[in-house]
Specification:
Layout lengths: L1 H27 L4 H38 L2 H33 L1 H4 L11 H8 L3 H8 L4 H6 L3 H16 L3 H26 L2 H16 L2 H5 L1 H26 L2 H8 L1 H10 L6 H11 L3 H14 L2 H17 L6 H14 L9 H12 L7 H4 L3 H26 L11
Length: 416
């Protein structure tokens, strides 16, 4: 635990240094801000790429081993059903909280945002036009496992791994055991690598934060203060709901769980990447006492279907853009939008800036000018910090809750 605390302190120091260094460059050397940002951002790129390097093999091996070891197909179905019930319920609650609070706080009616150059949203507008049921199927079903590995398409890897794991579970122990043992060894070796890679996290945090502050300065916080304030208040409400449900299921063990995931939460917040902490989450959840088979089954599914922070942001941002343009939506239209977002958001795993792509597509569908996305692009990075951290919390609670419901939550491994 001492090593964990050292890493946490190092990340906090890196966060503060990043803000300070970025601020100095923005104020004292504005002409150098762009090249500085481009270069220091490489620190974050190195960290993210190191993590991305191990995500595909880790998801594949842990999921195959988890399912193959279950051997009982009924158990796989039972765990999967409980997980999907949690994901659907959490998604609906997240969307509803975003809808309710954006209507109550009305940031679009009181915030005077500077009109941005619509050209900045062109790329997203083009991306959204191609979003269709065909895209959903392509993102879900791989035409080649090797292509899915090469492009880190987690959802496609999950689909193949589930089918492969079920096939192994039905082969019989004599045939399956050597393969399962090999994948188990590979998974443990990759988890060992996690410990090495996490020590690059402070550098990644420093680079990511310094780059953003150097380019945008502190003014951006003032200009968008009301929008950010209202959005983070809404996130706070969502956290309160998630933690309350977590406490009802886990009791006092919730506090131990939060203590264990403080580093992943901070890394996700700083780097705006919930993917960056996936390997660390696997490790911490197993140490917390969650069954390794349940962890390896639920967590990859959660990263595809259970993005609570992103879900809440979609309703919040969509209605916010409508408010900016003075478009009044009836309660029926807003509930329809909520259900549309509930369905379309499930096909966005692996799509860059996925939340924004879905927001643009949804705005077009409901007669809201999709160019309005340009209004929130400048601060999307800061909103993404909160979204990513909330996604990590949601998936952590989902995995712990299903472990508890299955009677598979034991005492913490480091206390036995």
């Amino acid at each position: 635990m001492k090593g964990q605390n050292k890493l946490f302190i190092a990340i906090v120091i890196a966060l503060v240094l990043g803000v300070g260094i970025g601020g100095i460059v923005h104020v004292k050397y504005p002409e150098s801000a762009e090249p500085f940002s481009k270069n220091i951002k490489l620190l974050g790129t190195v960290f993210i790429r190191l993590v991305q390097m191990i995500i595909a093999p880790l998801v594949f091996t842990t999921l195959v081993v988890g399912i193959a070891k279950m051997s009982d197909i009924k158990m796989i179905g039972r765990v999967g059903t409980k997980a999907m019930l949690w994901f659907i319920s959490a998604s609906l609650v997240s969307l509803f909280i975003g809808l309710m609070l954006v209507n109550w706080l009305e940031p679009g009616h009181v915030t005077k945002l500077p009109i941005q150059d619509v050209a900045s949203a062109d790329e997203l507008l083009k991306s959204s036009k191609s979003f269709s049921m065909e895209d959903f199927v392509k993102h879900m079903i791989p035409k080649s496992l090797f292509e899915a590995f090469a492009t880190n398409e987690v959802l496609q890897i999950v689909v193949f791994a589930i089918m492969f794991g079920v096939a192994l579970a039905n082969l019989g122990e004599e045939y399956a055991q050597p393969v399962v043992k090999l994948f188990d060894i590979i998974a443990h070796a990759i988890l060992k690598m996690v410990g090495y890679i996490m020590w690059f996290a402070p550098l990644g945090v420093l680079g990511a934060i310094a780059a953003v502050v150097a380019t945008n300065g502190f003014e951006i916080f003032k200009v968008y203060a009301i929008y950010l304030r209202d959005f983070f208040f809404a996130l706070g409400v969502l956290w309160l709901v998630l933690l309350l449900v977590g406490y009802l299921i886990l009791g006092n063990r919730l506090f131990d769980l939060l203590r264990r995931i403080k580093e992943p939460l901070l890394i996700a917040f700083s780097t705006t990447s919930s993917e960056a902490v996936f390997p660390k989450l696997v490790e911490e959840l197993e140490k917390f006492g969650c069954n390794s088979r349940v962890v390896s089954f639920i967590l990859p599914l959660g990263y595809s279907f259970n993005l609570d922070g992103s879900m809440m942001y979609m309703t919040f941002a969509s209605i916010f853009i409508a408010q900016i343009y003075g478009i009044e939506m009836t309660l029926g239209q807003q509930i329809t939008m909520l259900l549309v977002l509930m369905l379309t958001s499930k096909g966005i795993a692996g799509v860059p800036r996925a939340s924004l792509v879905i927001i643009v597509a949804t705005c077009s569908m409901f007669g809201i000018p999709p160019e309005g996305i340009a209004l929130i692009l400048p601060i999307d990075h800061f909103c993404d910090m909160g979204r990513s951290m909330t996604n990590v919390l949601g998936n952590t609670l989902a995995t712990s809750a299903v472990s508890k419901w299955e009677g598979q939550l034991t005492e913490p491994l480091d206390k036995i």
